[in-house]
Amino acid sequence: MRKKKYVILFFAAFLLFGEYSPAGRLPITFPVFEGQLPLGYNHKPTGRGDDNMNLTGKSNFPFVFGLSYTTFAYENINFGKQTISKSDSNWLSVKVTNTGKVAGDEVIQLNIRDKLASLARPVRELKGFKRIHAKTRRVQ
Fold it and tell me: How many angstroms separate the CA atoms of 130 and 76, rounded?
């Protein structure tokens, strides 16, 4: 005897046909090889370049990796100051345009690297981010 099954998907068709663009980001890094573990986004330099345990330092999917059905263009990136001291603050402005065919979310990130620190600092540090929603061909 065959039983009928019903599936209620609500908005799944919007995802499948590209009418809605999901915007998730990874909270961790996925390595290429087990020998790269631990592979954090903010690892300290090893002295042999940007590597992880004698490997390339590249990952399958890096921290904050995500896919989208739309694309974004970054233009006019401006910093308040190129050099800051320990007690200074700074600002950043950027023009982000949704160049794709559907509306979507983008996460704008500010990552820094202190090459002149007296103590070893991480190769990359996430200092700030902002999530925006942009309609097609709209500038944020």
Answer: 17
